[in-house]
Each structure stands twice: as C-alpha cells, then as structure tokens.
TrEMBL record:
Highest rank taxon of the organism: Bacteria
PROSITE patterns: GGDEF (PS50887)
Domain spans labelled GGDEF: 245-388
Name this protein carries in UniProt: GGDEF domain-containing protein
PANTHER family: DIGUANYLATE CYCLASE DGCM-RELATED, REGULATORY COMPONENTS OF SENSORY TRANSDUCTION SYSTEM
Pfam family for this entry, one: GGDEF
Length: 388
C-alpha cells in the first residue's frame, strides 16, 4: 500500500523557493566567473594578434560559451557591406566571396529595427523565418536573390550586432542545426555580453594594428618601409621553404633621380618617388599572373601576393612569392617599361633593377637580398657612360 502523498507546508515551499533562488544565483555567478576568465584569456592572447587573426578564435570561443550553439559566423563591416571574417562548421567554399549589403543585413536578416540594431540587441530566428529573412546576398559582387543553401540546415539562429561607439561594425551569428527551441534567455544574455566584450577586444586589436602599420609604412610613398620589408621577408622565406615554392626579389634604384633633385628641386624629387612607387604598385596589380604555387599553400590561405617596398632613398624592393626566375625577369621588364613612361618636368625616369631567387640553403633571405642588390649594381654600372 502506497503512503499518501506528502503535502508541503507554506513555510517549506518558501524555503524551497529561496533555496532554488540561491542555487540559481550561485550557478549564474559561476557562469559569470567562467565567462570573465575566458574574456581575460582572450584579451591577453589578442595583445599579440592582428584583428584578422583574432576573428576565428573569437568566434570559436563564443560558440563554446553560448548554450545551444553548434556553429556560427562572424561578419565584419567594410563600407556599406558585411563580409565573412570567420566561420565554424560551414563550407568555406559556399561562403567564399559572399557579402551582404548593410541595409539588407540590418532590415531583413536582423529585422528588429534601427533602435534595437544600434543598441546591439540580440534576436532569435527559428526555421520558419530563416529562409524568408535570409535572402539577398552578393557572390563575387553579383546579386543572388535567394538564401544561401546552408540556411536550409539551420533550426535556430541568434544574431547580434557588434557595436563600438554607437556604430555597428560587425555581426555575430550563432546557429543550431537540431533544435528550433534550443536558444533561451540564457543564450541571448551570454551572446549579448560576449558581443559587447568582443567589440572592445576587436577595437583594441584594430588600434594596435593601425599603430603597427604606421611603423611599417613610408610616410612619403605610402609603401611599406624597410622594417615592413624585413618582416615580410622572414614570413615569405619561411613559407617558400615550407611549401617548396620559389621566391623572387627585385631591387631597384632610380636612374636620373639626382638630376631631378639638382634641376627641379627636392619637391620634384619627392613627386618622382611617389609616382614611381605608384607605378610599381599598379603595374604589379595590372599584370598577368606569373605565380606558380602549391595547392597546399592556397588551401592554407598562404597564396602569395607581390609586395612593393621603399627600400630607402631612391631605392625600392619587390617581393614576388611563388615566382620562378623566368617569371621574375618578365616582371622586371614590365616594371622598367612602366617607369620609363614617366616624366617629371622635362626629365624622364628609369630604373636600374636586379633580380634574385631564393636558394635552398638561404634560411633567412640574407643571400637573396645580397644577390638582388649586387645584380642591381652590376646593371647600374654597365649602363654608365664610358670613362665614369
């Protein structure tokens, strides 16, 4: 025979409610401490990161903290568009070169209105609304008037604008693929708090990056300076050896630069340096690709890109990752021809230019620099008039 059900007294129910409240408060305290420790660790690690490097670990940490999160993405604003800066558990090929217009992201995908947008209020979408609101994006700059295929795999999404000083410059998406009701108030609150702290961390990282960029930039030409060159050289030499890629370097100085300074003055000399720097940069961008790099390097996001530097005085340097010797000679000819078309006042400009390629035993690039510099001086002296 079963014992009769016990009736709880009013005092016992009050005590139970108080106990539950205390337990809940303690649980929230533990979660808050865990969240704070995580953010402090993130802040410490971000001190040595550029913003681009910070996006992925930041998103991964958000997904690990927000209850119900299984995947997500972080969008960063560039002008009037948002672009993917980090993703977790999505096909990167699908999202490659995908951008969203600012007004579409705010008015359709987010959908809570301007006031909530500018307050950074998080919102939840479930499966029934996701395809409706997740429309209109740009792929390779062209409009696609439908939602991404990955939207069909989602059951629920949290969206949070990331603000700093009243401006939205990022958008955090947190997703679940199995349960439309998984996100509750606790998920929203953690997402909100995380977005606020993420904004501070990303702003600090961006500020540090700006300071570092200024230290690597030549004030006159806007090119990277010798310090920037040395940093890039170490990076590209390591990548070339790791992936078995060629690496070429060009060193140049300006033939006729002294005549510009002596005849037209130093202001004209500065103009000549600026124009040559622009021509080198633009000629490389406009030229046909001469690169040959391994598929592995591309997969790891290390596909090479040419870089122009002001070496010092009237000297410039160009790094050509992935470029074999024959390709480097083609680049040299193209750059010299582009500069040959320049004229400052009545005076023309030309480049003396040396080419070198990285050798197997050159672990730090010093031999590469020496050989390119020596080749440039050989060309320079070979062009001097006899008797000088």
């Amino acid at each position: 025979m079963e014992a009769p059900a016990r009736t709880w007294t009013e005092d016992e129910l009050d005590l139970l409610a108080q106990t539950a409240h205390v337990v809940g408060m303690e649980y929230e305290r533990v979660l808050a401490q865990r969240h704070l420790r995580t953010l402090l660790r993130l802040q410490a690690s971000f001190l040595s990161m550029d913003p681009d490097a910070a996006y992925q670990p930041l998103l991964e940490r958000a997904i690990s903290l927000i209850p119900g999160a299984e995947s997500g993405s972080l969008l960063i604003r560039a002008g009037q568009h948002f672009q993917y800066a980090a993703t977790v558990n999505f096909d990167p090929q699908e999202l490659q070169n995908v951008t969203f217009e600012l007004n579409v992201t705010r008015d359709r995908w987010y959908g809570l209105g301007d006031d909530a947008w500018l307050r950074g209020e998080p919102r939840i979408l479930t499966r029934s609304l996701l395809p409706v609101q997740g429309v209109s994006y740009l792929k390779d700059g062209r409009p696609a008037h439908r939602h991404l295929d990955s939207v069909d795999t989602l059951e629920a999404n949290i969206g949070v604008p990331i603000l700093h000083h009243g401006q939205v410059y990022g958008f955090l998406n947190i997703d679940n693929h199995t349960d439309a009701d998984v996100f509750g108030k606790d998920s929203l609150e953690v997402a909100r708090t995380f977005a606020v702290q993420a904004a501070v961390l990303l702003h600090e990282a961006a500020q540090r990056s700006s300071i570092q960029l200024a230290a690597r930039t030549d004030a006159l030409t806007g090119l990277q300076n010798r310090r920037g060159f040395m940093e890039a050289l170490r990076r590209e030499v390591a990548l070339a050896h790791r992936h078995g890629m060629p690496l070429a370097m060009l060193v140049a100085d300006m033939r006729g630069f002294k005549a510009v300074n002596d005849t037209l003055g130093h202001t004209a000399g500065d103009e000549a340096l600026i124009r040559v720097g622009n021509v080198l940069r633009n000629a490389l961008r406009a030229g046909d690709s001469v690169f040959r790099w391994s598929p592995r390097a591309v997969t790891e996001g290390n596909a090479p890109s040419e870089q122009v530097f002001r070496w010092g005085g009237d000297e410039f340097a160009v790094l050509l990752p992935g470029t074999p010797p024959a390709g480097a000679e083609l680049v040299k000819a193209r750059l010299q021809e582009a500069v040959r078309r320049l004229q400052v006042g009545t005076l023309g400009l030309e480049l003396n230019m040396g080419v070198a390629t990285l050798q197997t035993g050159d672990t730090d690039g010093s031999r590469l620099v020496h050989e390119a510099d020596a080749e440039m001086y050989r060309e320079k002296h070979a062009r001097m008039p006899a008797g000088r």
